[in-house]
Amino acid sequence: MRILILTHSFNSLTQRLHVEISERGHDLSVEFDINDSVTAEAVSLFKPDVIVASYLRRAIPEEVWRNHLCLIVHPGIKGDRGPSALDWAIMDGEVEWGVTVLQAEAEMDAGPIWASIPFTMRDGTKSSLYRREATDAAVQGVLLAIERLREDSFIPEALDYEKPDVRGTWHPLMKPEDRAIDWSKDNTETVLRKIRAADGFPGVADELYGKAFALYDAHPEGTLRGTPGEVIGRRHEAICRATRDGAIWITHLKPILDGERSFKRPSSLTLGSELEAVPEIPESDLGITWREIWYEERGQVGYLHFPFYNGAMSTPQCRRLEAAYRRACERDTKAIVLMGGGDFWSNGLHLGAIEAAESPAEESWANINAMDDLCRAVITTESHLTVAALRGNAGAGGVFLALAADRVIATPGVVLNPHYKNMGNLYGSEYWTYLLPRRVGQDGIPTVMGRRLPLGIRAAQEIGLIDGCLEAEDIGTYADRLAGSPDYADLLSAKIARRADDEAEKPLEAYRAAELERMRFNFFGFDPSYHVARYNFIRKVPLSRTPRYLAVHR
Ligand code: COA
Asked: What element of type H or E holds 438?
């Protein structure tokens, strides 16, 4: 079947659909929703059997939906309509939610239903629910709709609010007033719900030190108390604000600037000297608090969690993670599992922190060196066998950090972007020139690095980029087996011997030096591509055309 994906951007859901639809052998192309005439042109060039609108911010042009079957992916249950579906579901405390695939018609989200897949809500942010539950349901729904398209007898279900399973209703666009926090009235649960319902876009607009900011990535604090709304502590780059009945940690802020595109950055970088008098609160093992990195041990296995916001790893975060990793290596265990976070395993350098720095070039340099030091610590580990367990997507340097481990496993549905090219032709480091050929051979390098496209777990396994795919609940069993393997001692000594042989052939530092020479040129050279790409990416500057590697019809 010829399938055209029409989307506002190549976001995580669209990438996952791209992977799943291509794997099933369909002819696939992508067009960004730039304007009506570009969309119409794409349709006439590609001549699709069906158009799948995975993520749109405006209506499909009438001439397109009247003449072609257009299936809209709506992150809501049957009957739910409107542009803020998940936002309202979180605010209203819905327990059962879903994704509906419906046919585009004149009235928004009111067309015939081709598939509707339920899921159970979780106490997560909107973007986390979108990336996990909603994306899984959307994939299931779109694939089902594609199958149904082949069945002559299938008739999509007209929307009928009289039916008992049509529970949804129309919801308007959620406005800043609906999200606003009243620090004197709202309790911690309400504040958290409001921030979660607005994360990662548009964030909750609020005021701090007389300036306007959008708030992101909030976590409960169990012990600290203070005047509601006031900043009462800081930890690493996060701030703690008191609520009426408790306190919350906020890791990222976006300054709201009139008429200017702004971007998210670590809270302390945003507030700077305002925080001088605010006390630093050390992590405590007592009570509920926010930890950006945590370690747990079960049997002979240590698990290191690092759910950094959006998978972005700033210089201090890399340093703290390296220190935590080294502490894990001192434990009397046999295997260490690098767990990353549930939404992202890692997306490499923290481009927001870099963009906010006085010198983005210098900060890029510091960040890549901190990342490389972390990778080196993993690559050169002789005390343990190591596993990178990807339960969320990984991109750019984040993928190569995973390859530093002895084993790389991923849960179904994870999407990898193992390339740097999309960030202004960044050369990349993280010892990829050492790690990648070990896994895919010299011949496999262009497939991985030159493709620019997301890679699904099946394909990643086929080319040897990762070792296996298993459900999240089986990671512990996998690690226990490795740690308890009768061959454990042999496996460990074989890895040490291989590293020594590799080192003798070409020292790790030589790989790093060569990579960093190219990176120095990316950061400090005459060609500004990386700085321009980062500026646009982090501010979400819309593209004026769909890249050719996606729009194959062009
Ligand atoms: N630094 C800072 N923020 C990052 C980031 C990074 N390295 N990678 C992703 N993000 C942010 C995005 O800005 C976006 O922010 P939002 O919450 O405001 O929407 C969010 O994470 C999700 O990213 P998005 O691009 O929507 O996720 P995706 O799953 O659709 O795409 C990638 C994944 C990896 C393709 C894409 O995020 C990417 O290209 N990231 C940059 C990777 C990179 O070049 N790193 C630096 C070199 S090591």
From this structure: helix 432-449
In ligand 1, which atom is closest to the CA atom of 350?
1
Angle at 516 between CA 513 and CA 365, to 5 degrees: 130
Mutate to test the pocket of ligand 1, among 8, 126, 347 (most ligand atoms within 8 A of CB): 347
Residue type at position 231: V
Structure tokens at 233: 């502590």
Q: Whose CA is nearest to atom 43 of ligand 1?
A: 396
Tell me what percent of the residues of the chain surpass a pLDDT of 70.
100
Helix ranges, 152-266 (H): 176-179, 188-197
Q: What is the pLDDT of residues 42-100, one digit of tens each?
A: 999 999 999 999 999 999 999 999 999 999 999 999 999 999 999 999 999 999 999 99
**Omega cis (within 30) before 25:** no
Ligand 1 nearest atom to the CA of residue 368, by list position:
48
Both tokens of 18, joined, read: 């791209």
Q: Quick one: tokens of 535?
A: 């500026």
pTM: predicted TM-score of the whole model, two decimal places = 0.96
pLDDT(285) > 80: no
SS3 221: strand
Distance 338 CA to ligand 1 centre (A): 20
Give, using CA atoms, the residue closest to atom 23 of ligand 1: 310
Give tens-digit pLDDT for 529-538.
999 999 999 9
Helix (H) / strand (E) element for 303: namely strand 301-305
**Nearest residue to 414 via CA among 132, 204, 6:** 132
Question: What distance in Å separates the CA atoms of residue 73 and residue 113, rounded to the nearest whole number?
Answer: 10
Residue 447 has pLDDT above 90, yes or no: no
> Contact at 8 Å (CB) between 191 and 197?
no
